[in-house]
Every structure is written in C-alpha cells, then in structure tokens.
Amino acid sequence: MKRFFSSIYGRFLTIFFGLLLIPILLTLTLFLTFQMNALTSQVETMLVERAESMLTASERYKLGADEVINLFSERTLVVETDRYAATNWSVAERARLERGDVLTVSDERLPAVTLLIDRTVVTLTPNADENPVSIFRDLSFQTLLLTALVSSVLVLFAVRLMTRRIDRVTEAASKVASGDLTVRVHDGGDDEIGKLASQFNQMTETLATNESKNEELTAIMAHEFKTPVASILGYATLLKRDDVPTEKRVNYATMIEQEGKRLSRLSRDLLRLAKLDHSVVGLDVSRFSLSEQMRESILSFERESSRKRLNLIAELDEVEMVGDAGLLQQVWINLIQNTMTHSYDGGTIRIKLMQTAESIVCEITDDGEGMTPEQVSRMYERFYQADPSRHQGGSGLGMAIVQKIVTLHGGHVDVTSELKSGTTVRVTLPDQKDR
Predict the structure, then answer these.
(1) Nearest-angstrom CA–CA distance, 312 and 175
(2) How far apart are CA 102 and CA 230, in angstroms?
(3) Do strands 120-126 and 77-83 pair parallel, antiparallel, or not at all (unpaired)?
(4) If 47 and its partner were Cys, which of 26, 113, 367, 432 is the partner (CB 3.0–4.6 Å)?
(5) Strands 422-430, 412-418: pairing kind
(6) Cα 153 from chain centroid?
(7) Tens digit of pLDDT for each residue in 35-60?
(8) What's the alpha-carbon Rg for the chain, to the nearest Å?
C-alpha cells in the first residue's frame, strides 16, 4: 500500500479524490440541505391541505373517520388512526384538535399532520417510498454515486494513459543505464511528457555522439602518444650506452626534451578540448578590450617573428566586446602561431580587427605555404596536420580548439587558402553588448 501511494498513479488518485470528490460531496450536502428543507415544507403544506379537505368533507357530509379515510386514501399517503385520549395531549394541543385545527408533527425524516375526526385521531404521513422527499434524496445519492463512478473510471483511464507514457521513458532510461544508447522514446504528445520524451531522445543522441567521440579520441590518442613515447624510450636506451659520444648524448637528450614538450602540449590541448566538448568549463563572461588583447597576443610572438624576419602589420580598430577573455585569447594565440609556423622567412602577416553594426571581425592573412582545398576541408579534424613531416611540434588540435571556442561564443570561422600563395582566416563574432 505504501508503495502504491508513493507512485505517481497513487498520488494522482489521491489528489483526484481529495480535490474533486470531496468538493462534490460538500456541494451535494449543502444542496441537499437547502433543497430538502424546501421539499419538506412543500410536502408539509400538501399534508395540511389534505387534512383540511378531510375535515371539511367530514363536517359537510357527516362522514365518520373510516369513511373519510377511504374517500381520501391513496398510495402516496400513510394513514394511521387511534382513539382520542385527552391525556395524551397537552392543553393547547387538545384545544386545537377539538376546535378542528390541523397539528403538524415533527419527524426526523418525513413531515406528518394530525387531525381529529369523530373522536378518532388521524395521522397523515407521506409514503416512505413514493413521496417527493424520498425520491429526491434517493435520486441525489444515485447521481452522486454515478458521478463518482464515471469520474473515477475516466481518471483511472487518464492516469493510466499518462503513467504508461512515463513508464516508457523509465524503461528507456533503464536501458540507457545498462549501456544501450540506441534506445529512443516514441511519443508524439505536445504536453510535458512529450517534451520530456523529446529531451530524453536529445540526451541519448548527445550521449551516443560523445561516446563515439570518446572512442575515436581514445584510438587517436593511442596512436598520437605512441610515436613520442617510442622516441623518448629509444633515445633513453641509447643514452644508457657507455660508448655514446658526448655530442650524440647531448643530441639524444635534446630529442627527449623536444618529445617531452610535445607530449606536454598534446596533453594540455587534449584536456582543454575535452573540457570544451563536455561543457565542463562554462563561459566566464566579462567586458574587455579585444583590441588590447590582440596587441598582447601579437607581442607574445615577437621573438618568433624576429627569428623568421616576419613583417607584422596590425590594423586594429578599438573594439570592446563581452565574452570569455581567457578562451578568446587562446583563439588568437593558436591562429597567430599557425600563421607564423606556415609563413616563409621574411614573409608578411597582416592582422585586421574590425567592428561592423552587428559583428566583430578578425582577419589574419599570410603569404606562406597555403593549403589545398582538401586540406582546408580537413583542418578542423582533430590531430590532422597538413604536412606532419615539416611541423612536428604541433598537436593537430589547434584549429579544433579555435572552432569550438568561437562556436561557444556564437560565431564562426572561415578559411580561404591557395597553395604557395597564403591563407586568410576570418573569425566573426556577434557583437553582443548586453550579453
């Protein structure tokens, strides 16, 4: 019983009987009380009129009590007679009876009247089964029972219909808990349960997508980590040999250091991308100067640009925006680093920051190696490197991180490139001043 009332089915029935049947009972009780009083008064008036008619007939036609009773007898009346005994009545009642008045007698259920005919006390009461009061009372209770029965059946059907839909969601959730991410709930309703089913399906689709991504990421990680780890182990084994010259020993140590840094970058980028994918990190929104952030990002690559003798041209409008400053700075760092990596020595890099009526646009253009259309189409793939033999230091995750961060800010990234002629990366962000 406790389990039943703790279920939605039991609670719904309890609420129904509490909020529907109880008010019906109270309303019917009040209705019966007022209507019964009115009907009782009407029946009492009818009895008085009948008694007065009997008295009139007795006096006019000199009829005895039995003759009058036979004359006015009908199924709706119950007539009782008794010999008149003055001691059974009070002085006032005796005076009224002997004067020919009709006395009303109070009764718990039905009204009654008493009159005196030929020294015989005649009592008139309605037939218990065929009087308006009883008929109305019985009809009211029958209506109440029928209403309660029909309402209960309809509510049971409605509750069962809803709980059956909820049961489908519960059953599907159990399958998801056991690892089945292909399950879907088919419910075409537009109510709350239909919305729950729709949200559940979206959840399972997201879980299935994340599961697929995790499996793909695991496989790629195993492959990507394998190469630097193998290099580190190989060079470490060579360092243990006694016959290795000092020059080679330093070279091996340098290679171990480079591969270790590569693993560190790879781990850092993987962690950042995993957090962005699974929404572990929310946007830390604030208002900041985007133009100042761009200047800081450019200055952080001053050493690299000097080494490659790059000509940096920055055309920055004074722009303020609302967004996650930390994540967006990672976007500019990744893009500028990619541009410098793929630029020829002595090349030119042009960085433009513009603000339009509805958006903020940043363009980074170089005249370096460029890419083929196929490379452009694959540049957001994780661990993809257009020419891994020339750029061993990268993780292949930079553009995937850029695209994810820009998408989280409601923007998009467009890339145009031509082999041997250079690349232009255009980042468009919505200008949400009141975000």
Answers:
(1) 57
(2) 121
(3) antiparallel
(4) 113
(5) antiparallel
(6) 29
(7) 667 777 877 888 888 888 888 888 88
(8) 48
Angle at 259 between CA 256 and CA 263, to 5 degrees: 135
* 101 CA to centre of own chain: 76
Separation of alpha carbons 204 and 185, rounded Å: 10
DSSP letters along 186-240, please?
-----SHHHHHHHHHHHHHHHHHHHHHHHHHHHHHHHHHHHHHHHHHHHHHHHHT
CB of 404 closer than 8 Å to CB of 276: yes
Place of tokens 């000199």: 62
Write the pLDDT tens digit of every residue in 329-345.
888 988 998 898 888 99
| Encoded tokens for 187 | 């419910």
- 131 CB-near residues (< 8 Å, 6+ apart): 43, 76, 110
Q: Check residue 186 and give its pLDDT.
A: 81
Specify which residues 287 forms β-bridges with: 322
Please tell me the pTM assigned to this model. 0.49
Separation CA 145–CA 122 (nearest Å): 39
Residue 365 φ then ψ, to 5°: -125, 140
Please indicate whether residue 119 or residue 390 has the higher confidence score (pLDDT): 119
Helix 192-239 × helix 132-177 angle, to 10°: 10
Burial class (CB in 10 A: 0-12, 13-18, 19+), 132: middle
Task: From residue 190, give the alpha-carbon distance in Å to each of 154, 160, 193, 194, 313.
Answer: 21, 18, 8, 5, 56
368: enclosing H helix or E strand: none
The confidence score (pLDDT) of residue 261 equals: 77
Residue 260 pLDDT grade (very low, low, confident, very high; cuts 50, 70, 90): confident
Two structure tokens written together for 106: 């109070």
Question: H-type helices in 17-131, by residue range?
Answer: 22-61, 65-72, 91-99
| Cβ atoms of residues 331 and 399 within 8 Å | no
- Dist. CA 353–CA 366, nearest whole Å: 15
Cα 185 from Cα 206, distance rounded (Å): 15
Asked whether 410 and 332 are in contact (CB, 8 A), the reply is no
pLDDT tens per residue, range 420-429: 888 999 999 9
Contact between residue 341 and residue 401 where contact means Cβ atoms under 8 Å apart: no
Furthest-apart CA atoms within the chain: distance in Å: 156
Return the pLDDT at 174. Answer: 87
Distance, in Å, from the CA atom of 274 to the CA atom of 400, rounded to the nearest integer, reads 11
Q: Which amino acid is at 293?
A: Q
Between CA 62 and CA 95 the distance in angstroms is: 22
Q: Are 265 and 395 in contact (CB under 8 A)?
A: yes
Pairing of strands 311-316, 348-355: parallel
